[in-house]
Structures are given as C-alpha cells and as structure tokens.
Design brief:
single chain, 346 residues, alpha/beta, Rossmann fold, 8-stranded mixed sheet, 3-stranded antiparallel sheet, 12 helices, 31% helix, globular, binds iron/sulfur cluster
C-alpha cells in the first residue's frame, strides 16, 4: 500500500496556523469584493503573527459591516449602531490601549450616516485600522447610490448620479489621519502588503478599499465595477514591507524609492511609479489626489504616512496599564481630594 504524506500546517512566529485566523462561513454574495478583503485580513494577521485575542473587530451596519464575522473568530467583536463604530472603537481603546482595533465599515456607514463620527476619529489619530469597503452603493438596501459614488456614474436601472463623490482619503489626510491609502479588493498583492504595513503603524490607518458590489454595481457605466477599476487603476508605487522581525534585503535602485520606518521598526519601501511622489508630504498627497480625481484616474497606494505623529492615547497621557484592569483605588480619587472639590464648590 502506498504511503500517504500530509504537509504539516505552517506555523507563524507565535506558533499559530492560518486556521486560527479564520472566521465563520461568509453569507455575502459569491464574488463580492468584501470576501476578498476578509481573506487578505486573515493572511496579513497570520503573517504578522498577531495574537487573535488582542484584536477588537468593530463595525457598523451594511454588507461590509457583516464581514468581521468571516475572519478572526477568536477575537473580540462588536457590531455597532449604523455609523457609530468610531465611538465604540474610541471607548474600547481608552479602556484597553493594548488592544489592536480593526474597524470595518462601508461607504454608506462612513460617508453618510457616520460622517460626523468618521471626521472626529480621523482628527484624533486614534490608534486603529479603519477599512472602508467602498462600492459606491448601499448593497444591503438594493443598490442606491452612496456618497462615494462618482458624479455621472450609472445605476443598473440607468439612473445617473448627479452629485459629486466624497473622497474619504482626501478627508482623512486633511483631518489628521497618519496613514492613508487606497487599494482594490482585486489587487491581492498590494492590499496584502498595505494591511501588513497598517498593522505596524501606531495611529489611525484609513484604508479605502474599492470593493465592487457584484449584485448592484458591477455593470457598464459604474465607476466602481471590477472592469472599470482594472482599466483605470493608477498605482502610485510598488510597495514592499519588511516587518520588524525579519531583516531581508530589498533590491531597489537608489533614487527611485522612498523608505519609511514605522513605529515598531518595520520598514516600508515604496518604489515610485509617479515621479516626485513623497508619501510623507501631506500637501502634495492632497494635490495629487485632487488631480487624479479631475483626470478620472483611480489612484491606489499609500498616499500619506506620518509614523511620528502622537496618537490620541499619547495626547491623553494614558497610563500604560489598561484602565479596564486598574484597581478601583487607582482610578478613584482619594476621599480627601473629593472633599476638597466639594469644599471648593460650596
Ligand atoms: Fe456584496 Fe453587493 Fe452582495 Fe452586499 S449586495 S454582499 S455588497 S455583492
């Protein structure tokens, strides 16, 4: 009888296999871009050796916001009210700064009902990864235009969008997020690399990922279809990422690359495809994004990164020990201090 051989499961640096990062079976439409993003999150978390129990998955409402159920079953998870995920994320990070917050939202959840919360999250630079799974329509309510739909794009029914799109990347850079990029669910390599770099960053990472809705927005006339994005995708750079626990040489020609060292010592190597692009130049990032918009290009890549900007938790001078586990005697002012306050109020 022929001997059968089985390949042992590959373990990452903390001894886990990729199965430890999986979630439930997806209930989204077959071919939905969101499923590809979930797969990239699983791969990036596995390769970076993130402890699943350290992750807090957060979302709002919409097809996108269902996706945290499909990865990282061993992590914490909270599905918030529509558009209110940033408040929950802020509370979670204040209670335990050692969590790794991963928010998954949609263009409806972030750019319409949640816009008030989104802008304040960006300006605070709360340490978290905030992904917008952006398809330009409300998939869960049968495909009406969302606020990120481009001017002139068409619904399946032939209705033309007569309002300009909100560009969440421009907003995020303008407001203070310290790592901002755009990718495409169909670009496995770019998205995977950007997610790994995002895991090494301290501060708000805002990734707008174009993620076509195959049921309501993948037709001729849509500017968020698989075909349109493949035809109009303009990558800014080739991205390589070397995590802090690896030290491999990256072979790039001097003068054509930008290297950024992230908070934990990991390195981002960006080989320029567009001349003069420096991702640490905030004003240039805004200019390039606006120019691409006028030309009808869909720029992808890391537009802006500032690894040194203080986070919201730094600004609050939070103790390193999580507030959630501090004993009462350390979080409550002593009686003498309270008596003094009462005295001053008399
Ligand atoms: Fe994805 Fe669209 Fe289906 Fe929602 S309706 S699961 S966005 S393909």
């Amino acid at each position: 009888m022929a001997a059968t051989t089985t390949t042992p499961p590959k373990n990452n640096r903390i001894g886990l296999t990729v199965m430890d990062y999986k979630g439930g079976r997806t209930t989204l439409c077959a071919g939905c871009g969101h499923n590809a993003i979930s797969e990239r999150i699983i791969d990036a978390m596995f390769e970076m050796g993130v402890q699943p129990e350290r992750v807090a998955k957060l979302s709002g409402i919409g097809c996108s916001s269902k996706s945290p159920a499909y990865f990282l079953s061993r992590s914490h998870s909270f599905n918030a009210v529509h558009g209110r995920m940033p408040s929950i994320a802020t509370g979670a990070m204040l209670a335990n700064r050692h969590l790794l917050a991963l928010g998954v939202s949609g263009d409806g959840d972030s750019a319409s009902i949640g816009m008030g919360q989104f802008v304040h999250l960006m300006r605070r630079n709360l340490p978290m990864i905030y992904i917008i799974e952006d398809n330009g329509v409300y998939g869960l309510t049968k495909g009406q235009f969302s606020a990120t739909a481009d001017l002139g794009s068409k619904l399946k029914t032939g209705v033309v969008n007569d309002l300009p799109a909100i560009d969440t990347c421009i907003l995020a850079i303008h407001l203070g997020a310290s790592f901002v990029g755009r990718s495409f669910s169909g670009d496995k390599k770019q998205l995977h690399t950007m997610l790994k770099a995002a895991l090494a960053h301290q501060g708000t990472v805002m990734l707008d990922v174009i993620s076509p809705c195959v049921t309501f927005n993948d037709h001729e006339g849509s500017t968020k279809s698989f075909k349109y994005i493949k035809d109009h995708d303009e990558p800014l750079h080739d991205i390589s990422f070397v995590p802090f626990f690896e030290d491999i040489a990256v072979d790039y020609d001097p003068g054509t690359t930008v290297d950024v060292t992230l908070h934990d010592g990991s390195r981002l190597h960006l080989r320029k495809l567009h001349s003069d692009y420096d991702p640490t130049d905030r004003l240039n990032a805004l200019r390039v994004l606006n120019q691409a918009h006028d030309k009808g290009e869909v720029l992808t890549g890391i537009f802006y990164v500032d690894p040194k900007k203080p986070t919201f938790l730094d600004l609050l001078h939070l103790a390193d020990e999580p507030l959630a586990t501090l004993p009462l005697e350390r979080v409550r002012p002593p009686k003498a201090a309270l008596d003094q306050v009462m005295e001053e109020l008399r």
